[in-house]
Amino acid sequence: TLKDQCVELSTEKTGSHSYDAVVVTVPLGVLKSGQIRFLPALPNEKRRSIGRLGYGSLKKIALEFETCFWSHLDADVFGIVRESPRDRGENFLFWALQHAAGRHILVAMSCEPWPQELDKLSLEDIQNRTMKTLREAFGPLPDPKATSTSTWSIDDLALGAYSSVSIGATGQDYDCLSEPVSGQLFFAGEHTNRRNPTTAGGAYLSGIREAARIINGRDGFKKVSEKYMERCGVSELPDDIRSAMAYEAPKSKQACRKESTQQPSSQKRRRSKGSIENQWKHRHRRGSLCPACVAGRQGGLTPEQERQALSQDEEGRTPRA
């Protein structure tokens, strides 16, 4: 519940507590389910973005073996195509982690609709099905010495695995979900990171973004970066962290148009109907973004870069919004 000076958070287990700010990091599936009640309700556009973005599940089965029987493939990732079209989503991809983990581990991936089907089975049955797939491809194999699996599709705190851009959704929906509400309610998670969605890294970077935003805007980015470097014992920020801290959500099309009409008179230039600026202004209305806005979504432009972007021709080199 948003109040004048605080956010009141109430749960069945812990009761009610008040905070200066709250960061909502639950997965998109939980937001879609309506398990969390916001008072007042979230802004309409944010609720529409929650509804538009897709969200699906993925099943991971990790198997550890005594030997690395797949070493002859010389690959960290390999796929197996099943004969039956219906079975092709089950154990379709394997991650080989012998280099990353230093152990003989394979992680099998199963996509929709198989996560829901496999989550109904015991761990032993899941292991047997996965080994059947591997034996069809590699021949006789010993059983793994250890097996573990995810259960995201039936986890009430996840209800799935990753977000996706479904039909009708755009990257703008990720930006919308990252916007705070009333300066007190903040949002983080892979589904709020337009640059790195569907990854643990993207979720982590969104947390850094919100921590900096809560501390106080740009000064916050500096404070968080200094704390990060001190804690990690490094003198420079890694590129991905620096990228996250430099990120700003792009302006909306309406904001772009409004800003263009509010220039000081001394800066206004005469624009013919066929000018580059006018052409892109009309493109905004048709759903495209001008080069400046597209580049702005990638970290912002200097005035010189903006002039160069606006001078591009309009022969389809700019992706649609």
A few lines on this structure:
The protein has about 325 residues and is α+β, with helices and mostly antiparallel strands. Helices cover about 40% and strands about 15% of the residues.
Sequence of strands across the biggest β-sheet: 6-7-8-5-9
Structural class by secondary-structure content: alpha+beta
Query: What is the mean pLDDT?
Result: 78
Poorly predicted runs of 5 or more residues: 247-261, 265-301, 313-321
* Count of alpha and pi helical runs: 12
Residue share in β-strands: 5-15%
Q: How helical, in percent, are the residues?
A: 25-40%
Output the radius of gyration. 24 Å
Counting DSSP E segments of at least 2 residues, the number of strands comes to 11
Task: Assign an overall shape.
Answer: globular
